[in-house]
Amino acid sequence: MKTSRTGRKGRRYGGTTKKGNPTKNNKSLNRQSSQNKINKRNRSTDPDIYTLKTSKTPQKTKVVVERKEVSTKNRVLTEAMHLRLMISLGMIILGLIGLMMKVYAIQSDSKDYNQKVLSQQRYDSRDIPYRRGDIMDRNGTYLATSNKVYNLILDPYQINQAQEKYLDPTVSLLAEVFEYDEQNIREIIASNSDARYIRQEKEVSYEVKERFEKRKDEINKDFAAHGLKSRVHGVWFEDAYLRVYPYNSLACNAVGFANSDNTLGTGGIEQYYNDELIGTSGREYGYLNDDYNLERVIKPASDGNSIVSTLDSNIQKIVEKHISDWEAEMGSKVTACIVMDPNSGEILAMATSKTYDLNNPRNIEKYYTQDDFNALDENGQNEIMNDIWRNYCVSDTYEPGSPSKIFTVAAALEEGSVKPEDSFFCDGGQYVGDRWIRCAVRSGHGSVTLKESLIRSCNDAMMQIVAGLGTEKFSTFQHLFGIGEKSGIDLPGEPDTSSLIYHIPDMTSIDLATNSFGQNYNCTMVQMSAAICSVINGGYYYEPHIVKQILNSQGSVIKDIEPKLVRETVSSSTSAFIREALRDVIERGTGKAAKVEGYDVGGKTGTSQKLPRGSGKYLLSFAGFAPVDDPQVFCYVIVDEPNTDNQAHSIYASNLFSKIMTDVLPYMGIFPKDEAAAQKIQEERDAKLKAQESSEAQNNDNSAGENSTESVSSDTKTQQNNSEPNSSTSAAKEKTPNTSGEGNASESSEYETDEYIEDANADFEGDAASASLSSNESSAAQQSKEDKSTTAAETKKAVKKETAKSEKNKKKSSKNTSKSSQSETTAVKSSNKKKKSESSVAGTDGNKNKTKKKTGN
């Protein structure tokens, strides 16, 4: 029993030393032998063998266990393992076979597959156009809007993939719906065989698109029903927007137009507010899923904001109608008008005689023949187009003439250099330095009060007033009224006029004298309108503006443009004095032709000589407002170079002002204090509106401006337009004042002759009836009447050439005018002789007049 236990202990604890040498202990040898037997027995089944190692440490044996990897070199696969391996290999082979079959199937049907993918390629990346914002008037009437249309796109590549199936039906349908020539379409497809995108037709309406799509479906279904593979293919429509101007030429200068892709505006609100009107294009992405179905990802477009302008389309129509009528009766180089709210700076209407169709802005048939236009080079054509598109009210400068006398008197009153009760003696002119500068009435107005200096438009009195004011203060008030500075109007093209006025270091006494009555410096219509409004409204200068609100694409207000008070110009007492004086200008002064029946109206005439002096060219104007006590509307009219031999008659501009205001005032709800007159005006207004509505119903496609186009066919006017295509540019050059002393000296002879005959003749109408007129004044009034009769005769002749209507009117009045025609001719000759006589003795009479002035004062 002991022996067996010892044997088991030997097998359990037997081993070798660390170096593998046998020990001297017999028990150790027995244990090693037993362990080796165990290892041999377990080597085939145990993955790891643990070997006991002993150290040589005396008297104590240290056992260390080491792990050894068992070699599998001779391992044999079991039957189960072999089965699993074969199954895995079989599955891999089957997968490869399936994949190869799939690839083969795709390749064998690659043509149809590619066509299916390519047919959807337009969805892979497509722009979604935004809608340009609308432009409306203050009442919500659309002046510009964007209508959705479609562009017809051809894809020749798709069509050419199977011409025998796609070409004939596709070409036939295009020819049927769009009336194309089939041969031309075939040539386009053949010559662009690899093209994926050809814009064949732009601005296709929804109705035409639907007709095409309907016929396409019918044809394709019919082919399929007969088992044919032919079908209409390779044609599709993309969305687009067409800019539309419902009233064609209405307010064309103020509204402007957009280019074909609606990304850029030219002129007017379209250009100035382009960043507000444009939006952001969207994007549509597409792909085919595993089932070859189209999947889409859409980023929608962001539409542009809309603009609510201060314009009133009804007032605009009134203004354009009367300008058109004037152009048909006589015409001019340019006729322009601004209607404005003097208490806010809002522009209610802005129009010129140079109009164009906003829907077709490059149509120049109204002004030039196509042959004449084509004969010009590119620069010449661009000059013509820019001249037509130019907004005269904002961009052109001119010498303002007598309306600027308002500023001279207002400045003197504010500075205290004159008092309302002061009077001045006019003897027909004034020596300034060594130059004699004439008044409108060469024989002199005699003694005039401060108010009468405006009523009678006396240049002599203005020169005396400004002499007391001084150069520095006069220049200060010029800037205070905004002369020589940009008005800040929200329209493009306003020039910098700082170089077109005299500044303190350069202003001579002659410059000061001529500036006092509006000559020898330049400004714009917008500058003059804002400045005069600041005088008549109590002294508040508002920045002129043409936009009232900005709306987002949902119609919500995102910005209100409030009236901007820039500065105060004059006191309320000065404002009241000027208003009273301007009322008398119409009641008993130079502006009687501007009277509006039943209304209390004030205003100032202007007859400005143009360069070169003595050329006989004049710019006529009238600036007026109503009611006088509480101005609600301001109207400024300019007639630049009327088509008549004798242009120096502000009556042309005054008459046009009267006609415009006669219609505008009742429309705005401003009625006379006299109830009978108010009732009469209301009835006339209702009748006009009814007639206008009837006319618009019969001819809905024509705007007010276009209705007048056909009637403007004067030979004289056509000749002028053809001979002066660049008149705007040359006029701008003429208007620049000469600031050099040398230039002023060279003009001394002009001052001594016929220069600065401001508001002469016609402007003095009615003064002969005044009891205070001197004998000299009576003589001037008589001369004025004679010259006016001459002008009337000339006007009738011009009208006779232009319109049949005027011919009839002339025949009706021929009996009344035949007796006076001979005396009119005599008066003209007498007047011309008198002018030459005065011109020749100007130097001799100068000292006498100077002595006379001193005695009078």
Automatic annotation (TrEMBL):
<feature type="compositionally biased region" description="Low complexity">
    <location>
        <begin position="815"/>
        <end position="830"/>
    </location>
</feature>
<feature type="transmembrane region" description="Helical">
    <location>
        <begin position="83"/>
        <end position="105"/>
    </location>
</feature>
<dbReference type="InterPro" id="IPR005311">
    <property type="entry name" value="PBP_dimer"/>
</dbReference>
<dbReference type="InterPro" id="IPR050515">
    <property type="entry name" value="Beta-lactam/transpept"/>
</dbReference>
<feature type="compositionally biased region" description="Basic and acidic residues">
    <location>
        <begin position="679"/>
        <end position="693"/>
    </location>
</feature>
<keyword id="KW-0472">Membrane</keyword>
<dbReference type="GO" id="GO:0008658">
    <property type="term" value="F:penicillin binding"/>
</dbReference>
<feature type="compositionally biased region" description="Basic and acidic residues">
    <location>
        <begin position="784"/>
        <end position="807"/>
    </location>
</feature>
<dbReference type="GO" id="GO:0005886">
    <property type="term" value="C:plasma membrane"/>
</dbReference>
<comment type="similarity">
    <text>Belongs to the transpeptidase family.</text>
</comment>
<feature type="region of interest" description="Disordered">
    <location>
        <begin position="1"/>
        <end position="57"/>
    </location>
</feature>
<feature type="compositionally biased region" description="Basic residues">
    <location>
        <begin position="1"/>
        <end position="12"/>
    </location>
</feature>
<dbReference type="InterPro" id="IPR012338">
    <property type="entry name" value="Beta-lactam/transpept-like"/>
</dbReference>
<feature type="compositionally biased region" description="Low complexity">
    <location>
        <begin position="14"/>
        <end position="27"/>
    </location>
</feature>
<keyword id="KW-0812">Transmembrane</keyword>
<feature type="domain" description="Penicillin-binding protein transpeptidase">
    <location>
        <begin position="336"/>
        <end position="661"/>
    </location>
</feature>
<dbReference type="InterPro" id="IPR036138">
    <property type="entry name" value="PBP_dimer_sf"/>
</dbReference>
<dbReference type="Pfam" id="PF03717">
    <property type="entry name" value="PBP_dimer"/>
</dbReference>
<dbReference type="GO" id="GO:0071555">
    <property type="term" value="P:cell wall organization"/>
</dbReference>
<keyword id="KW-1133">Transmembrane helix</keyword>
<feature type="compositionally biased region" description="Acidic residues">
    <location>
        <begin position="749"/>
        <end position="766"/>
    </location>
</feature>
<feature type="region of interest" description="Disordered">
    <location>
        <begin position="679"/>
        <end position="857"/>
    </location>
</feature>
<feature type="domain" description="Penicillin-binding protein dimerisation">
    <location>
        <begin position="129"/>
        <end position="290"/>
    </location>
</feature>
<dbReference type="Pfam" id="PF00905">
    <property type="entry name" value="Transpeptidase"/>
</dbReference>
<protein>
    <recommendedName>
        <fullName>Penicillin-binding protein transpeptidase domain-containing protein</fullName>
    </recommendedName>
</protein>
<feature type="compositionally biased region" description="Polar residues">
    <location>
        <begin position="694"/>
        <end position="748"/>
    </location>
</feature>
<feature type="compositionally biased region" description="Low complexity">
    <location>
        <begin position="768"/>
        <end position="783"/>
    </location>
</feature>
<feature type="compositionally biased region" description="Polar residues">
    <location>
        <begin position="28"/>
        <end position="37"/>
    </location>
</feature>
<dbReference type="InterPro" id="IPR001460">
    <property type="entry name" value="PCN-bd_Tpept"/>
</dbReference>
